[in-house]
Amino acid sequence: MLLKTIADYAVAERTAKLRPEVIHHAKRAVIDWYASLLPGSRVTPAVLLEQALAEELDRGRARLASGRRATLRAAALINGAASHSVEFDDIYRDAGYHPGSPVISAALAAAQTQGATGESFLRGVIVGYETSTRIGEAVMPSHYKFWHITGTVGCLGAAAAVATVLGCSREQFMNALGNAGTFAAGLQQAFRSQAMAKPLHSAHAAEAGALAAMAAAEGVTGVHDILEGEVGFGAAMSVSPDWGKATRGLGTDYHIVHVTFKNHGCCGHTFAPIDAVLHLMQEHQLAPRDIRKIRIATYKAGLDIVDNAKPEGAYQAKFSVQYTVAHAVVHGSVRLNAFVPERLGDADVRSLMQRIECVADPELSRGYPNQRAARVEIETADGRKLAHFQPTRKGDPELPLTDAELNGKYLELAVPVLGEAAARALLDELWKLERRPNVEFEQAARQPALAAG
Fold first, then answer.
1. pLDDT tens-digit profile of 167-189?
2. Is the dihedral of CA 153, 156, 159, 160 positive or negative?
């Protein structure tokens, strides 16, 4: 039974000697999560969720990004939404999954509620990542046709993390995941509008996983064959899942060391084209006026999400390869300011978008989800055709952000919210997490929340 094997691993992981590399990458994941959480906490839907859940705030031992107290479930939910809102959160590429948002949101709320040590918190994060990334691999790529994997598999990752922090027994851990699997939800249709539903998927996953673990700790039973059962998670949500991937290398080959940290503030399916076009612009010293046409060939599963030549509003723009590539050409990057109103209406960006052609490349499509590549060709105004193949994305395991680059990303996103002194102080504490007696941080935002994302 799959959950028995996973639970055996999780219980052993609470006291196992972890390699320094694993601890280091877990801390990197937490730092990256804070980088997304802090700006996301100041925009919708997080600011609206604080209003909706007002009765669950200003009590409890967990904390929101603002430092406001909350119950475990409310903190997991609101922070889960906030950390997935600005599209800067991490990715486990081989499952197409954002583990940090549901897993760390739930694990931190549990650790704060329990008064747990920094090491205990990190172990919860690691178990949540190792469990959910493998389940995600097992059901991909067919799962992604209809389901948002961060909303579905994220429930299992959050449950695993919280069950670890709570010190659940093997049986309780199985019960937690058994019920988290039946809570799993999140439909791809949410990607196709200006609605706030996508970050709510992560919010629900963090809260539902936390609920499953809290209930299991008190004796609530769960379905132990929820993954591989005849009418279970795999049968309902994928085609021919490979359950061998759910346990392969568990406890020895750590997935958390292979996580992608985003280098652009938009959907990860746009990254390879952005990286490729920036490479060509730099290599050939091109200016936007030099470009007549851009042709992008990439994998079909990505284009199904991001091929949108006429995005409406900031949310759709983050999921438009035409917009993000054109913005990168005109402005040199795709950061948070790429989605402010004046940039969304930039005439130069909008003009270039109409000269970008996107096609699905059969060879690159076969490489998905393990490879996220693109071939980009720029036709210049003087008739040259310049091409570049981008085999991976900046931030992927093969081309990772260095610790210094990760620090820079964190400071870029955290300083406007916390102020420089507080942001740097928090960063210093996060790099020392395994030595901290608790995870109570001074992280209150210095500025009021914004009204809209």
1. 999 999 999 999 999 999 999 99
2. negative
